Amino acid sequence: MTAITATSQKAPISSLATIRTKADLAGITLAIILTLAVIVPLLVVALWAFSEVWRYPHLLPQQFGLRFWNQTLSRDDVWDALGLSLRLSTVVVAVAAVICLPASYAFSRMRFFGRDTLFLSFLAAHAFPKFGLLVTIAAIFLRLDLIGTFWGVALIQLVNILMFMIWIPVAAFQAIDKRMEEAARDVGAGPLRVFWSITLPQAAPTIIAALLLSFVTTFYETDGAWLIGAPEIRTTPVLMIGFINNEMVIQYGAVLSVLLWVPSAIALIFARRFIGGDAFARGFGG
Amino acid sequence: MAVLKIENVSKIFQGGTTAVDDLSLEVSDGELVCLLGPSGSGKSTLLRMVGGFERPTQGKIFIDEADITDQWPERRPTAMVFQSHALWSHMNVFKNVAFGLRLRGLPAAEIRQNVEGVLEMVGLAGYGKRMIHQLSGGQQQRVALARSLVLEPKILLLDEPFASLDQHLRERLREEVRDIQQRLKITTLFVTHGQDEALSMADRIVVMRDGRTEQIGRPDAVYRKPLTPFVAGFIGTMNLVEGQVMRGAFTRAGIRVPLPVADGPATLAVRPEALDLIAAEPGQAQVHRITDFGTHGIVDLELSDGTRLKSMATQPNALRPGQGVDLVPRALTVYRESREIYRDVHD
């Protein structure tokens, strides 16, 4: 009896191990392909940024140096664009937080007429070809004298991140056990105190994840910034595209591109250190 | 301390579901009353109405004669221990317990003294700096209890607090909670669907069904003198046999029990421990299975129509499966139309 049980148990375990090995191999292969697809272009850009001479048919640059870094960083328009991008991203994310966080709480905890329709409407900006939407908005902005202004670009970028700033916090608020809030009421906290001391701290990791995602998205956004902001408002990515398109020397664009990695790298390090991947997963319903 | 009075309270949810139906109850000072019933019987809704998390559709709730029916939860002199513990995972143990005291604006030194005192009482002295995820399920439940007790509430509300714990821990914690409740003489309303919990902890048990009380009484009375077949079947193990009373005897598939009641349909209720067996061939029933628990055995019996009964035997090995037996009830209750019509207790 014992022997039969042992044999019948071994078979599924060994077959499970085989499946896992197969899955691991497939996973490793996929990871390698994805890594190559992501890393190789980045590596090429980084090599260009630090190369002074790189001619065909050489596989690697013939001469490395910081000449183009010095030249790029000595340009006023680069620093202006960097400052503008940081200001713009901060303002857009702050305004989005003020509007979207209370709205998210309402979506997650209240029942009102048209709730589901309104909630789905935040997908609209991402459900249709974006450029068509941008052109339509640009036509409206033209009449409102918002073209080429800081607030014009801020508004268009706000539209871009509404979905993240509504959907992710809604998921965060919905994931909180209502009993926790009731327990706080039970020991004497009013509704505002409950929100401040219990709900918000519980949802904070996921909300910070949404803020970071929105900040990085806004920082790198080009379509809206170019269509609404040009020619007066030039964010760093718009300037980079200009360098790539108009400059004969590839290195200017490459240097600016590497510079643009900095904010997302900081955001990612911050996210890994303080939030953890589960907050992102929770935000997307995981 | 405090007296809780629930007067003709009903709760009808949106959609028309009646969770609690015209229920009245008084819990005396220092008494522990268990609300016992199956899922959907309205016991948790009633507890939540006392805590202020649900508003009664009708009726009034009083604590020490003060009407609290329309008071917000934060204004009520009640404290609830939730089934899911509902501890705040972003705070450590000390902050969880101290939160309510801080809201009351107590000085830091007094808060520290009170929190440390209550943590010691629940057996968690020195655990203040631990985060919630570093605690076991039992320890988390103690923190939840400490968080409620530190506020010295007039009424303690326990909503299936041990449901998520394993059997061994559940038994230990319920003894500890009962000890603390009796030491503090705190008026307590306790929701459970576990009859063992209710029988071992309660001063009185309220058996609920479909939002109404089926029976209110001391645990021994509810166990020994169930007023309805529902209570008889819900508390402990009970043999409930539907049959007919004809010419002074209850009959069903070979059983015949003389009864001094009028003819008509009836339900016979006999506890396994009150059902003696006498070997007989062919007998009124056949032994189907014998389960030996060491201290006693449970004999599963089968009537000729397939109805199953249980009998508790002190010497189960004297019987064997397939053997015929006659049934001799030492104590029985007879119900008709869900009401008791006859009770006979020989011993």
From TrEMBL, chain A:
Gene Ontology cellular component list: plasma membrane
Positions of transmembrane segments: 25-50, 84-107, 119-144, 150-173, 194-216, 249-271
Membrane topology: Multi-pass membrane protein
GO BP, one annotated term: transmembrane transport
InterPro entries attached to this UniProt entry: MetI-like, MetI-like_sf
CDD domains: TM_PBP2
Keyword Methyltransferase (UniProt): no
Keywords: Cell inner membrane, Cell membrane, Membrane, Transmembrane, Transmembrane helix, Transport
Domain ABC transmembrane type-1 intervals: 82-271
Subcellular location: Cell inner membrane; Cell membrane
Similarity section: Belongs to the binding-protein-dependent transport system permease family.
PANTHER family recorded: INNER MEMBRANE ABC TRANSPORTER PERMEASE PROTEIN YDCV
Protein name (record): ABC transporter permease subunit
Organism field: Jiella flava
From TrEMBL, chain B:
Domain ABC transporter, chain residue ranges per copy: 4-235
Record Pfam families: ABC_tran, TOBE_2
Recorded GO CC terms: ATP-binding cassette (ABC) transporter complex
Annotated InterPro entries: AAA+_ATPase (IPR003593), ABC_SmlMolc_Importer (IPR050093), ABC_transporter-like_ATP-bd (IPR003439), ABC_transporter-like_CS (IPR017871), Mo/tungstate-bd_C_term_dom (IPR008995), P-loop_NTPase (IPR027417), Transp-assoc_OB_typ2 (IPR013611)
Keywords (A to Z) from UniProt: ATP-binding, Nucleotide-binding, Transport
GO MF annotation, one: ATP binding
Gene Ontology biological-process annotations: quaternary ammonium group transport
SMART domains reported in the protein's UniProt record: AAA
Protein family according to the UniProt entry: Belongs to the ABC transporter superfamily.
Name listed for the protein in its UniProt record: ABC transporter ATP-binding protein
Organism for this UniProt entry: Jiella flava
